[in-house]
Structure prediction request, 386 residues.
Amino acid sequence: MKFSTKAVITAENPNLSGETSSDVISPIHLSSTFAKADFESTTGGHGYSRLTNPTREVIENKLAALENAKYAICYASGQAAECVTLLSFLKSGDEILCFDDIYGGTRRLLSKVFDSFDINVRYIDMTIIENVESAITSKTKAIWLESPTNPLLQICDIKAICGIAKKHNILSIVDNTFATPFLQKPLDLGASIVVHSMTKYINGHSDSIAGAVVLNDDELYERLRFVSNSTGMVLSPFDSYLNARGLKTLQIRMEKHCDNALKIAQFLESHNKIKKVIYPGLSSHPQHKLAKEQMNGLFGGVVSVYLDADDKQMEIFAKNLDIFILAESLGGVESLFGCPYYMSHGSVDESIKEQLNITKNLLRLSIGIENIDDLIEALKSALNKI
Ligand SMILES: Cc1ncc(COP(=O)(O)O)c(C=O)c1O
Prediction:
């Protein structure tokens, strides 16, 4: 089956026995607990919803099918998914190698929470593949990466990096939030674990906070299930339902997000109030060729842009930009924009922001699925005001 068919039909099993209603859409199972016929067995495979729940199982099975994976486990947020992943294999004294340009919240979790447990994190530029192998030490337990990164949309060679991890017998963890399984499937490229903020494109409608871990390894899966049950950060039935519903339309949404984003990147690149546009679909992007090979011929729905504007002019632009909403997050059907310096990367130290070039005139645009002419008109009009 092809991607969009799998997205729609996986885990939807209308019951034709006549014993219960034959819902075409999997219902929302709110029950926290499930009746047992005897002390030892579970009837229908579920015992208590912290461990497993039938509605959560629907989104887990759909996501696993779309990532070509054996297993997925869904959590109450992308951060919870990251946290459980880390707790499942780290021991005090271990070290993680991390792409230096990652989501600010991931950096905060690694450097300002896990540091208390004597976990050392080293940040490196993974666009240069030699940096990865030379940074590995006997203490390195995992390599953590995003591609495209948040917010600078850098691309790294997932297959090559996962190959290096395998050679050194360490885990490779890929945050696939920005690309989604429609654009790239990191497990097929050799990754040990994929993590998602489903809050973004998987759900796609900005009405649920959710996360997931996806993997193939049986032993790691058992450990993750154990840690998930022990920590309890799992996804609620209602959010599971919303994410399963959203996931069904992932392909058509992604096609539109990517198409709109490319047109907007091309428009902005030719505008005189713009200093620089970052979009993997532009031939000016340093890893354009790699992105083309790695991302199913599409380049994502996020465009980052440095305006030729001072603080005051940035404010004027923000106040005058119609349709786009100034808000955290990305990946919903509506276009949003944000300033990573103050928002997604607000918790990152000033010196690191300076080093990464996350400046006050950098905006991250999450391009929605609205009409492209309306979006370009809105940007043109706000740029003219500065
Ligand atoms: C790439 C990436 N990973 C993880 C997260 C965290 O996800 P959540 O907000 O669902 O906890 C985000 C949130 O913006 C993100 O952009």
Remarks:
- The chain has 14 helices and twelve strands.
- Residues 316 and 386 are 6 Å apart (CA to CA).
- The two ends are 50 Å apart (CA to CA).
- The chain has two domains: 3-247, 250-384.
